[in-house]
Design goal:
Distance between the termini: 8 Å
Order of helices and strands: EHHE
Strand content: 5-15%
Number of helices: 2
Largest sheet: 2 strands, antiparallel
Strand order of the largest sheet: 1-2
Helix content: 40-55%
């Protein structure tokens, strides 16, 4: 089965919701991931990708987070 980075982002979003009681930072109910604006889903995807990229690296080897500027939702798939 092929999974996209968007799938990883959705999983991270759900983990966030599990910790916060499905409330956003304002204390409001979190919408379903699919119902978020594309920009917000893309931001979650970029955040998940940054974490995946930093995994198993020392901080001095972490890539610049600004490299995700211009990322488009679902640009790549996980194999």
């Amino acid at each position: 089965m092929i999974h996209t980075y968007a799938d990883v982002a959705e999983s991270a979003y759900k983990a966030y919701g599990a910790v916060t009681g499905n409330k956003n930072f304002r204390g409001e109910p979190m919408p379903e991931f699919k119902d978020l604006p594309e920009t917000i889903r893309t931001a979650w995807e970029a955040a998940a990708l940054q974490v995946m990229t930093c995994k198993d690296r020392v901080p001095s080897e972490w890539p610049d987070p600004l490299r995700w500027a211009g990322w488009k939702l679902g640009d790549r798939v996980l194999m």
